[in-house]
């Protein structure tokens, strides 16, 4: 059975959604990143980058959420856009991987978790996060789904990060990104989204951002103490 190493962060949740949509049987293996489990040798043997998600499918190990989505779509033949949309599929998957995810994640970090305010960093990452999300919103203005008429892995990739939008950009995010909100609501209305969200009930993840969690999540801060 496929093994899915996960937390409740945006990237693992994309994969959880695919697994629930596709009906693939899987074993969910929690990786509690605030406890530092992502740094244990058994996990870094699967992903040297020490990040979730990771899947182990027999003899095949895949890390990076968008790579996993593409692998699973090709494996199952599900939620793969038509061949004529191959270029658009790869382009938007990489847009999420290289733009939406990193800039939204850094926006969250500097607004909520940095040990001291950094106005320059907050301004840069807030600006870039908004810029990337507005590109998506404009793209969706004339489309039901990211690639047109068919729900696909690209929509799943967007959904994972859209779940974090109010925390990242503030309550005004949904008002200013109406087309993203429409896509998000349409995916949330699918039964698979509810099943994916229910993963939170399978494991009691650590919620405190205490000293242990800070060391595990932001090891770069240890250099400042040296």
Summarize the structure.
The chain is an alpha+beta fold and 226 residues long.
Note the main attributes of this structure.
226 residues; alpha+beta; 4-stranded mixed beta sheet; 57% helix; 8% strand
Shape: globular
Mean pLDDT: 96
Element string (H = helix, E = strand): EHEHEEHHHHHHHHHH
Beta-strand share of residues: 5-15%
Unreliable parts: none
Largest sheet: 4 strands, mixed
Total strand count, please? 4
Distance between the termini: 45 Å
State the helical fraction: 55-70%
The strand line-up of the biggest sheet is: 2-1-3-4
Contiguous helical run count: 12
Computed CA radius of gyration, to the nearest angstrom: 18 Å
Q: Supply the helix-strand structural class.
A: alpha+beta
Write a structural description:
This protein has helices spanning 10-22, 41-44, 65-76, 86-113, 119-140, 153-162, 165-169, 173-176, 178-188, 191-197, 211-217, 221-225, and strands spanning 2-6, 26-30, 54-57, 60-63. The longest helix is centred in the middle third of the chain and has 28 residues, at 86-113. A hairpin with a 2-residue loop joins strand 3 (54-57) and strand 4 (60-63). Helices cover 57% and strands 8% of the residues. The chain is built from twelve helices and four strands, in the order βαβαββαααααααααα. It is globular, with a radius of gyration of 18 Å. With 226 residues, the protein is an alpha+beta fold.
């Amino acid at each position: 059975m496929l093994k899915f190493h996960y937390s409740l962060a945006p990237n693992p949740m994309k994969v959880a959604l695919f697994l629930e949509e596709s009906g693939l049987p899987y074993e969910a293996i929690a990786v509690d990143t605030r406890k530092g489990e992502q740094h244990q040798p058994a996990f870094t043997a699967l992903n040297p980058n020490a990040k979730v998600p990771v899947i182990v499918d027999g003899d095949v190990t895949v890390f990076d959420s968008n790579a996993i989505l593409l692998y699973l779509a090709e494996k199952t033949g599900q939620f793969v856009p038509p061949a004529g949309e191959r270029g658009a599929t790869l382009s938007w998957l990489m847009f999420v991987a290289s733009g939406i995810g990193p800039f939204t994640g850094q926006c969250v970090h500097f607004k909520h978790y940095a040990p001291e305010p950094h106005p320059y960093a907050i301004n840069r990452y807030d600006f870039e996060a908004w810029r990337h999300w507005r590109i998506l919103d404009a793209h969706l203005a004339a489309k039901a789904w990211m690639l047109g008429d068919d729900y696909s892995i690209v929509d799943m990739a967007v959904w994972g990060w859209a779940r974090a939008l109010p925390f990242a950009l503030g309550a005004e995010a949904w008002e200013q990104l109406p087309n993203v909100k429409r896509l998000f609501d349409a995916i949330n209305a699918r039964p698979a989204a509810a099943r994916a969200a229910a993963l939170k009930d399978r494991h009691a993840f650590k919620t405190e951002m205490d000293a242990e969690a800070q060391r595990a999540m932001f090891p770069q801060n240890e250099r400042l103490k040296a």
